[in-house]
Amino acid sequence: MSHQTVIVLDFGGQYNQLIARRVRECGVYCEVRPYTAPLAALRAMNPIGIIFTGGPNSVYLEDAPKVDPGIFTWGVPILGICYGCQLMAHLLGGRVAAAQDDSAREYGKTETQFDTGCKLFQGLPGAGITWMSHGDYMERAPQGFAATARSAACPNAAIADEARGFYGVQFHPEVNHTQGGTDMLRNFLYEVCHAAGDWTMEDYRRAAVAALREKIGGGKVLLALSGGVDSSVAAALLAEAVGEQLTCVFVDHGLMRKDEGDEVEAAFSRRAMNFIRVNAQDRFLIRLAGVDEPERKRKIIGEEFIRVFEEEARRIGAVDYLAQGTIYPDVIESGAGDAAVIKSHHNVGGLPDCVDFKEIVEPLRLLFKDEVRDLGRELGLPEYLVARQPFPGPGLAIRVIGDVTKEKLDMLREADAIFREEAARAGEDRRLSQYFAALTNMRSVGVMGDGRTYDYAVALRAVTTDDFMTADWARVPYELLDRVSVRIVNEVAGINRVLYDITSKPPGTVEFE
Ligand code: XMP
């Protein structure tokens, strides 16, 4: 099924993935292409509009990213953002100048006035805050353009040639700090490009299935299924596309949360595909015995995972395609669109080199995390799989502080399950970015009934964060902590004390190890 496409032409700005995300949020399909893409290839995509992104350069630099001015003769509407706006102005005969003094540079939240007669600002208030981040500024708009927004330092904060459908904004409408930013993008898409709003998850699913069938043909596909959101959704999508040509290998390393291995099996073993669960718990435990250094644990688990996966792959025989649940932020972070780079992205430390396959298939590589979750729902995956909070590849091994044993893992699984169950019951789970229990390496004295206990202390951790680079400890209600504490010490033998971690990141990290 075909749908309208908007091209986001990437000039290297830091918010480019956000632009693509916003466009899709508006119900319009878009694809990001590098500014070096041949013009003919862009044209062949038959876009209804093009967005030039921001970028770190100055248009006057010798090696500044440029675009063939032929793009302006297609009759396709263009929105330039920040550098993209300056480039458009520069190429169409305007004048961009480097700010001579600080007063002409703008960074951060900036009071801006808009001409609401301009299609871009239609229906918006006449003034608002925009997010600026520029050293250069547009001194003179090109012929045919009018200034349609201004700030104290920027008389041309937005420019428009409405007859040709060319718009430029000096600020970043895609970031949340710009008030009404998404409305501006929506105006560009619907009022200027006349988008039909034909991009839904159902369309995406249909198109993705058709594209996978065409690519894979009668070939064999192998996927390492971890039970995390991305690989689960990739598995479901591939299963719909090629059914039994797909084999999913789920390596159960015994470091999953309570019932998680069975949940993954229940969700996938019924689908029309080959599902293999490798119960490798003992192997991992043997290799982890006596190891208490966190990075060493990670390395052992990564290596062992690859070994198990390779053994299974060899058993299955020659595969044509290795599938991965790579999502768009992974692609961006890898800094390249090259499939081979993706290997290092795998949760548990890279994929095997000696599995013989022709090509990598990444059916989610254009999607963002929340879009992946929506696609998972669309494919009928259970909510507990698609709404899953992040879970580290090394699993509970890095939540048992110190050396890992089966007894400790079992204790932790019970305590963690109680915390998750009570958090969900209290309606706190959706507010929290990540929350879990960790088994400390500390034992302490307690009293239970008439007797003395000398048992482990479990630590509860709950954080809120947007990006996991920084995180705040979550102010969960005392009543919830109380219920969890009472249940854990009563229900989990071997634990007699419950602590709550009130350290943010930095200086702490989300995980204890
Ligand atoms: P930290 O502890 O670094 O965690 O603040 C940030 C996020 O990364 C997850 N995390 C990991 N994920 N393998 C993973 O796949 C790991 O070794 C690992 N260590 C931490 C953590 O759960 C949090 O979401």
Describe this structure in words.
The radius of gyration is 27 Å and the shape is globular. It contains 14 helices and 20 strands. About 3% of the residues have low confidence. The strands form four sheets. The chain has a nine-stranded mixed beta sheet with strand order 2-1-3-4-11-10-9-6-7, with helices on both faces. Strands 14-13-12-15-16 form a five-stranded parallel beta sheet, sandwiched between helices. With 513 residues, it is an alpha/beta fold. The longest helix has 23 residues. Helix 5 packs across helix 11, helix 8 packs antiparallel against helix 9 and helix 13 runs antiparallel to helix 14. It is 32% helix and 24% strand. Xanthosine-5'-monophosphate binds next to loops.
Map the helices and strands.
Elements: E1 5-10, H1 16-25, E2 29-34, H2 39-44, E3 49-52, E4 78-81, H3 83-91, E5 95-98, E6 106-114, E7 127-134, E8 136-140, E9 146-151, E10 158-161, E11 166-169, H4 181-192, H5 201-216, E12 221-225, H6 229-242, E13 246-252, H7 260-269, E14 274-279, H8 281-288, H9 294-316, E15 321-323, H10 328-334, E16 359-361, H11 369-378, H12 383-386, H13 406-425, E17 434-448, E18 451-464, E19 472-473, H14 478-491, E20 495-500
Parallel strand pairs: 1-2, 1-3, 3-4, 4-11, 12-13, 12-15, 13-14, 15-16, 18-20
Antiparallel strand pairs: 5-8, 6-7, 6-9, 9-10, 10-11, 17-18, 18-19
Helix pairs in contact: 5-6, 5-11, 6-11, 8-9, 13-14
Xanthosine-5'-monophosphate (XMP) binds next to loops.
